[in-house]
Design brief:
Layout: E1 4-8, H1 12-30, E2 38-42, H2 45-54, H3 57-73, E3 78-81, H4 90-96, H5 104-114, E4 119-123, H6 126-130, H7 132-139, E5 144-146, H8 150-162, H9 171-186, E6 191-194, E7 212-214, H10 215-227
Parallel strand pairs: 1-2, 1-3, 4-5, 4-6, 6-7
Helix pairs in contact: 1-10, 3-4, 5-10, 8-9
Length: about 230
């Protein structure tokens, strides 16, 4: 098995999900006591979040590129960036190393197309929903991407940072997210991309009336497949 390098800590709540899924999926594939060959570099999310808030994306790119180089030096054969939002700086990471980065939006788009869908709603941080880096990557695969209106985007973003990143899961927030998704479905969304790794702490497929694409699990599945 190749060694998977995990760029994590954004937040560690979702990074722990990545670690669990990688090991469970490897055991399912190989059986017995098998677990994933992986190296996790978990950054201080307070540092990264401050860069996000200040729009210092180049600084964030340099920081994560440094992490990627450390993982490559430690023996990683491929990289997984354990966050949707920070794929905004994916190119800085790719340019810093000679090993491949498995882009989360690509694995997600592949799953959407495999399901036979072409129009999806997108939930995530305000950065992911409002900026072009993620939506354009999905669109490059032929997908039409719908995002919630301004008030709903603010609600989705707030729940991620003020609750889910802190490990707080509230029924009221689940209901609010379901209403946001309902609005996207009313506008024609055939499915919904849970485009923030923490959202899977709040929503499962049974909570949603249309296909829900859980990006953390999809990313982990792609990483295990690549490593094996």
């Amino acid at each position: 098995m190749k060694t998977i390098g995990l760029i994590g800590g954004m937040s560690w709540e979702s990074s722990s999900e990545y670690y669990r899924l990688l090991n469970e999926l490897t055991r399912e594939r190989l059986g017995g006591l098998s677990s994933a060959e992986c190296i996790l570099y978990s950054v201080d999310f307070a540092e990264i979040e401050a860069m996000q808030a200040d729009g210092r994306w180049e600084d964030a790119g340099r920081r994560l590129a440094q992490v990627a180089r450390s993982l490559e030096a430690a023996g990683a054969d491929l990289l997984v960036l354990c966050t949707n939002t920070m794929h905004k700086v994916a190119s800085a990471i790719e340019e810093a190393v000679s090993i491949p980065l498995l882009h989360l939006a690509d694995t997600t788009a592949t799953a959407v197309l495999r399901a036979g869908l072409t129009r999806v709603g997108l939930l995530g941080t305000a950065f992911t929903m409002e900026q072009a880096f993620y939506r354009d990557r999905l669109a490059a695969h032929g997908l039409e991407v719908l995002i919630p209106g301004p008030e709903d985007r603010a609600l989705v973003h707030r729940v991620i940072y003020d609750e889910l990143c802190l490990g707080i899961v509230r029924d009221e927030s689940r209901t609010a997210y379901q209403e946001v998704i309902g609005g996207l479905v009313d506008r024609g969304a055939e499915g919904v991309v849970l485009g923030c790794t923490e959202i899977e702490l709040l929503l499962r497929q049974e909570d949603v009336s249309v296909p829900a694409f859980a990006t953390t699990r999809l990313h982990a599945e792609a990483a295990v497949a690549a490593a094996l």
